Amino acid sequence: MAISEQDVKRIARLARIELSPEDAAQTQKELSDILGLMARLQAVDTQGVEPMAHPLSAHQEIQLRLREDVAAPTLTESERAELMANAPAQAEGLFLVPTVIE
Amino acid sequence: MDWEIVIGLETHVQLSTESKIFSNSSTRFGAAPNTQASVVDLALPGTLPVMNYGAVERAIVFGLAIGAHVAPFSKFERKNYFYPDLPKNYQISQLEIPVVQGGSLRFFVGDEEKTINLTRAHLEEDAGKSLHENFTGPHGESSTGIDLNRAGTPLLEIVTEPELRSAAEAVAYARTLHALVVWLGICDGNMQEGSFRVDANVSVRPRGQKEFGTRCEIKNVNSFRFLERAILFEARRQIELIEDGGTVVQETRLYDADRDETRSMRSKEDAHDYRYFPDPDLPPLVIAPEWIERIRAAMPELPSQKRQRFEEELGLTAYDAAQLTMDRATSDYFEEVAAALPQGQAKLGANWILGELAATLNREERELADCPVRPEQLAALIQRIIDGTISNKIARDVFAAMWAGEENGNPDAIIEARGLKQISDSGAISTMIDEVLAANPAIVEEYRAGRQKAFNSLVGQVMKAAKGKANPQQVNQLLKEKLDA
Amino acid sequence: MANLPLHTQFPSIQALRETLRSGELSAVELARSALEAIEAQSQLNAFLHVDAELTLAQASQADAALKSGEAPSLAGIPIAHKDVFVTRGWRTTAASRMLENYVSPFDATVVSRLAGAGAVSLGKLNCDEFAMGSGNETSYFGPVLNPWDHSRVPGGSSGGSAAAVAAGLVMAATGTDTGGSIRQPSAFCGLSGIKPTYGTVSRFGMIAYGSSLDQAGPIARHARDLLELLEPMVGFDPMDSTSLESCDGKANNAQRIRSNFDAALASQQQKGERPLDGLRIGVPREYFNGGLSPDVAQAVEQALRTFEELGAVRVEISLPRTELSIPAYYVIAPAEASTNLSRFDGVRFGHRTAQYGDLEEMTSRSRFEGFGPEVRRRILAGTYVLCHGYYDAYYLQAQRVRRMITTDFQQAFSEHCDVIMGPVSPNVARQIGDNREDPLADWLSDIYTLSVSLAGLPAMSVPCGFSAEPKLPIGLQIIGNYFAEGELLAIADCFQQATDWHQRTPGQQ
After folding, report:
1. Does A92 sit within 8 Å of B36, measured CB to CB?
2. Contact call for residues B352 and B382 (beta carbons, < 8 A)
3. Which residues form the domain of B305?
4. Which of B225, B259, B428, C492 maximizes the CB count within 10 A of its CB?
5. Please, are residues C240 and C109 in contact by the beta-carbon 8 Å criterion?
6. Into how many domains does chain B fold?
7. Which site among B20, B23, B35, B47 would you substitute to test the A interface, given the most A Cβ atoms closer than 10 Å to its Cβ?
């Protein structure tokens, strides 16, 4: 099952993974093989079968649990610092990213 | 070429829950950055969403208010795109089966009433905010600060069918929707804080053409005035483009208020493949009929229901009824006034509230909540007009005095203190008329000669003599009798 | 005390518990000894993060509880966590460069529940990167060596967990199983492992790979030890919307499993010489096709005969869509993973590349650098199948096939059998580096374990023999119907009373 260079570029962009031309070529081959494997699904007659997104639905009526609407207290500065401790770049309590011009 | 403008609106309404849709962080506005963002909101590894009861409840309230179908079973999907204010780089939203389906909204455009159909309303999470001040990144690069306090706030996205046909209609719909969500208590309606944001889908087509033209989306307009101008600009832009031989490209645009124009958003790619698929972390939302009935039973009387009652039982015009039901404070005020007036006189109450009261509030830039005249006091004033104690004109002076706090706002006390009682004693009026007639023989002659103006002049003289306090109807009647005698 | 591996000193958690409670040994001494053993066996590369201070602090607490006489069930018992469970204190990397220096501000529910039961954590265990792999070779921090043969893989993705238990460094370890990642390394390392019914154990704090498939579970020396760990692990968690409050009407908690186990054991005792009398074992004919190696086939056959001697009967069944489980799984898991891993963008945590121009470059480069080739492959494949135009043919189709596979199991359980047994893997542990050129080869060897994950059923792996030459462990898979964890453990326990495969240790095959 062939996948085009164009497709690879597009997917890599959607997935935000930078691929050098060599990586892209390698990826193209690998993905084609993978898609070949996946293509076995096409031959299966699934008429009338509902897709199964939640394994729980197989054995019981599962439904979304709802949480009471109660707010947690606002974080103190030190609590915030703990949550932001792994940030690659921060200033004044904000996460920093290179500016996007809109 | 006769062009038709086609508009559909998508409104993002922030629901007034205490906590966020999928986490228990507070939704209160104005906190220090990232102090209302939990591990779930930050999308730290291993975190999972848990749905807020209050968000679902408010969605149901909205669905019932617009006569929509509340889905007994609805799903959540992941909408995938990368953006720094979207921590998971996907938004949890609803695509295939939204919680609210269909429904409609009535509103006035000028004097004309219109009903617009809604396609759907669904629950989703809001994104964080980008602060474009000049921060500097670790390599000296110009940077933007990301605040995730808003990320995860519950949104109800309300979508109309593309049935709006003018900027004015769009604004009228948006105002009515805004009033409704505030009325229902599901949204605080604060547009400066971003509680109510409108996207407009605008296209044009030759009148009579069945197919829709290519549409552009104008995003995130946060005032009604800008909404109107943005739509007007965009429609004109598209028409001019087509008339010049060009074609409209489907794209997303932003409205620039300073330049009064819409601009294409550079950062958005033309082909956004959101790759929607069912969120495996959230089983389907089931809404039992019992829950819907409980909510229906507890719902406040809707604006549309009050309107109908005001029209049918209290005899108001459709327009007045609509005006009085734009917000609960006004309709509550009106109902109190109407209740204190005799049967059939509610219209007077409506006139006073929509007229003198509204004008005064406007002039002083006050809200009804700060009105110094209480409903029962206004009713008492109106009662004095009805029973002839004072004329409409004098009543306005009394009203002003009540507003200013004279005699503790008691209309009777003011009338008494200022001696404003209308003279209705026909004897007294008769005497005054006789005096005026005697003093103005020339004008009497003019009247006899057929000049209506002379009559009015005589009335004026009588009123002057009575210091404005004579009952105008009686003056008119008696004067005519005497002149024609 | 001597640096002997734990399993040579204590045959079970129960035995160790008694030793600790008698005061013969303190939790701190035990922990120190374990730390030394881990150091001595560092070439296995089973552990990624060890912090003596943190461990000894937990051990001290356990000692205090033991002295007070009110110690919780696992007080002082040395365990360790697969590095996809977030932990305060120890780093959590998911064996990835992306999270090389990440320290979580909260503990996974599984971690806090086991800590609450008094267990002492020796640290974080190596695994395949983001749990994607079947040999622990995709780890950024290097492969894990199989204690039975250092030139071979321990299995994956919970390779570090299996190696640590097999080498006697800890009594038990937590793992995660999305397509076989508890069962297969257990089999390759001669251990017992269980993947419980989907929804019984919380996923909060477990770094997500395939959300509708992932489930946490223990790896240990035998069924009774698995039960010891499983009990505190199960239970409803309000932080996880896919976590179950009840299992077929019974509350989702430890007592449910324990009482099912006890009842099954009592029933076995009553039946004397044929404790498993009445048990129908479904044996899928599709599991015994050409792909199965003779060694594995023979060991499994021998195990089935043992079960027959114990009173069970074999029933041949058909699971016709077994092979389809491979493409179905490898559509669904990568699809879910592709979005689960979107949050790793170098903005709020994780690896950020050193050189970048704009935001898109920063994100794309950080992700290229942070993720290894297998992870990138799965993200890209997963992204593709969700794309407009392919969604129906791939993703929806896979979910339909998933339902059909689930129905096949349901039919087998309702009409033919009580449990299903078969191999875990077509082969024994392969050489490290063998599948480098062919990334799909590993995928294909998951054929016996994937369907169970797709259906959300509980399943175990128990040791049932060795390959001829070289002598490497072979595992038997036991698959139950929903919520049958107690029964499965009892069946495995019965087998383990009658055999000694689970008592063998590396060097004593």
Report:
1. no
2. yes
3. 301-418
4. C492
5. yes
6. 3
7. B35
